[in-house]
Amino acid sequence: MELYDVMRTTFACREFTGEPVPDAVLHRIVDNARFAPSGGNRQGWRIINVTDPDIRQRLADLSLPAATRYLLELQAGESPLNTINPSSVSEAQVQAAEPPHALVGHIRNAPTLLVVTVDLALVASMDKDLERVGLVGGASIYPLAWNILLAARNEGYGGVMTTWGVAQEPAVRQLLGMPGHWAVAAIMPLGKPARQLTRLRRKPVEDILVENSW
Q1: pTM assigned to the model
Q2: Class of the CATH domain delimited by 3-50+103-196
Q3: CA-closest candidate to residue 60, choices 94, 101, 111
Q4: Going edge to edge, which strands form the sheet with 158-159?
Q5: Fewest CB within 10 A of the end CB: N or C in the chain?
Q6: Are the CB atoms for 157 and 193 separated by under 8 Å?
């Protein structure tokens, strides 16, 4: 596919036919995705291909608490899980709610499931002393994650970056045998899309590109 066609048609795919990504195709996807940039070209990343069904189920279960809160905050008219405006949804409400298993079904049933991780000892977090949630460290891992999705689209597959499970990172780290200084960036289901979206809705350029000042 042409580059711009891939960029314009790579969507958050959560429904799959059940056909796994063949090993040779997955290797080709990662082989091309690994050319993503990272700070100092340190490439402090590792991708775990989760083939064990029990581990997959556990990753889905660990994603449920954050998915529950996300849904409740959305239903309350809030922008879910943001760090600026306090939520009106209590932890007691989250614990009492019926877990939204459908929201994590794509993790539980994904034909192929990747966990994208990053070595925090190799990430330059330029915003580490600011009084807000850190963002800059993502520049050394999310280009790789997005390259995986672009490469998958080019191969006729699709996927999505899920991050609910990151809220339970200590448990995920233990489940996967990760060292303590490694972080989970995304839990990424991949597979053949049940349907392919080609007309994605996005804001016009005039709404996001400005000159010289805010």
Answers
A1: 0.95
A2: alpha beta
A3: 101
A4: 45-49, 112-119, 182-191, 158-159
A5: C
A6: yes
